[in-house]
Write a structure and sequence with these properties.
Elements lengths: L4 H39 L2 H26 L1 H10 L3 H30 L9 H16 L1 H16 L4 H23 L9 H25 L4 H4 L9 H35 L1 H38 L2 H28 L12 H16 L1 H16 L4 H25 L4 H28 L3
Helix pairs in contact: 1-7, 1-11, 1-12, 2-4, 2-5, 2-6, 2-10, 2-11, 3-4, 3-6, 3-11, 4-5, 4-6, 5-8, 6-8, 7-8, 10-11, 10-15, 10-16, 11-12, 11-13, 11-14, 12-13, 12-14, 13-16, 14-16, 15-16
């Protein structure tokens, strides 16, 4: 189909109205991570900053798997909404809440066990000692976070993306406010150092759960769904429906985020200075990824709605509009990261050696913006049409069969350093984005 502004303009508007609250909410969430890294780097130094990098490497894989499973709720609720079936939407919500709560506890247990083996990863012992308490506290914060996601994904499946944005922004603002006094011991607060940032995260995640639960329980537009709450049963069949989408979705996130986490471990084998630079560049690059994931969330909602209505021409049109928006958004972020490669890292560290490495990595981060954004939107769109198994295989091959071995080969074996590691990541992202976009086109063109 030839591009016509008149054809796509309305679709851009609908998609952006769904996406911008998620984008802002995700931006607020990642800004907490940015604030943690900036404050730790400035007030505590290079070793604690490297400890955050190690902690993220340990936490990210189980955490993103759990979040991916939670995302399995959204297309099912969106499909029920498209079919105008509130009883089914409530059934999915109730089962999703129980599933997420249990999964949150299980994930924390796994993190607590795995953290004790962190010293086996070949990291600097000073870094491991700083990272372990942080891992335990932030790991426990996954428990309230997962319950929060059940409420969030239910609301987003009903095309209400603004509530989670407001709750997330308020909680994340409080998180940033608590960071400084808890890290430095300002005023009446205890000086907790790195663990202070973790305590702040734990407190605010409980507040996020409370705020989102209160909103959905009290808001009048959800009253119809609550009327079906008592009659909705928690049963294996419904849980299995969520898991059939959620587990592959979780694995998709594991394969990508796990590759980035492993890249942190590989860079840590090179040295703590390079590891700190890697953490800074990755932290900055993650801002744009978290924002573009809002377009992926909008893709899931829109595809799920149109699939429920069986409006396949509109489904294809909405999908293409989201890829257009992703392209232009990532073009902007690519340009900004490259232009600001010497400026932005100064907020994190004053170590000249760290800044020198980071400036080079920022160029690599800018280059992989486009494929990273396109694969995120493609995964969201495919999840919306309940196509999750083949995309999971694509993610595994792109990141673990190709990218991770290439990261080690280029960065450590060929001694290219951290830039070699980032070259390996970029290759994986490019291959994943091409394969996933082709998969979406192939699947939707066959829908009648």
């Amino acid at each position: 189909m030839a591009y016509r502004w008149s054809t796509y303009s309305q679709q851009y508007k609908i998609s952006l109205n769904l996406a911008y609250p998620v984008v802002i909410g995700q931006l607020g969430q990642i800004m907490v991570s940015v604030a943690d890294s900036i404050m730790v780097g400035k007030f505590l130094g290079t070793i604690p900053l490297a400890a955050i990098s190690l902690a993220v490497s340990v936490l990210i894989i189980p955490m993103v798997f759990a979040i991916g499973v939670a995302y399995g709720l959204t297309p099912l609720v969106a499909g029920a909404d498209g079919e105008e079936n509130p009883a089914a939407a409530t059934k999915y919500f109730k089962n999703g809440l129980v599933l997420n709560s249990i999964l949150g506890l299980a994930i924390y247990g796994l993190i607590a066990l795995f953290a004790e083996g962190a010293h086996l990863l070949g990291q600097d012992e000073r870094v491991v000692a700083e990272a372990l308490p942080y891992i335990h506290v932030v790991g426990f914060s996954i428990v309230p976070m997962m319950s929060f996601f059940a409420f969030k994904q239910f609301a987003e499946g009903l095309s209400d993306t603004k509530a989670a944005m407001r709750v997330s922004l308020a909680a994340n603002f409080l998180n940033v406010l608590l960071n400084y006094p808890l890290i430095t011991g300002w005023g009446p607060f205890p000086e907790l150092g790195l663990i202070g940032a973790a305590v702040s995260t734990l407190v605010t995640r409980f507040l996020m759960l409370g705020g989102m639960a209160l909103y959905i329980r009290k808001k009048q537009k959800f009253a119809l769904y609550w009327s079906y709450w008592r009659s909705s049963e928690v049963n294996w069949q419904t849980v299995k429906e969520i898991l059939n989408i959620g587990v592959p979705s979780g694995l998709q996130y594991v394969f990508e985020a796990g590759a980035f986490a492993m890249s942190g471990v590989i860079v840590g084998m090179i040295g703590p200075v390079q590891q700190a630079a890697h953490q800074i560049a990755l932290n900055i690059a993650s801002v744009s990824y978290m924002m573009v994931s809002g377009l992926g969330a909008a893709a899931t909602i829109r595809m799920g709605n149109q699939l429920g209505r069986r409006d396949y021409p509109m489904l294809r049109l909405a999908g293409q509009s989201l890829f257009h928006l992703t392209f232009f958004f990532m073009l902007v972020t690519m340009t900004l990261l490259i232009l600001l490669r010497n400026f932005l890292p100064q907020f994190y560290s004053s170590d000249p050696e760290v800044l020198q490495y980071t400036a080079v990595l920022m160029v690599a981060a800018g280059i992989f913006q486009m494929p990273d954004g396109m694969q995120a939107t493609a995964l969201g769109a495919l999840r919306g049409i309940k196509d999750v198994n083949i995309p999971t295989i694509v993610a595994f091959v792109a990141y673990w069969v190709i990218a991770v071995p290439l990261c080690y080969f280029l960065g450590v074996y060929l001694e290219k350093g951290p830039i070699g590691v980032w070259m390996g990541l970029t290759v994986g992202l490019v291959l994943a984005s091409i394969a996933l976009y082709w998969r979406f086109r192939h699947k939707t063109l066959r829908m009648h």
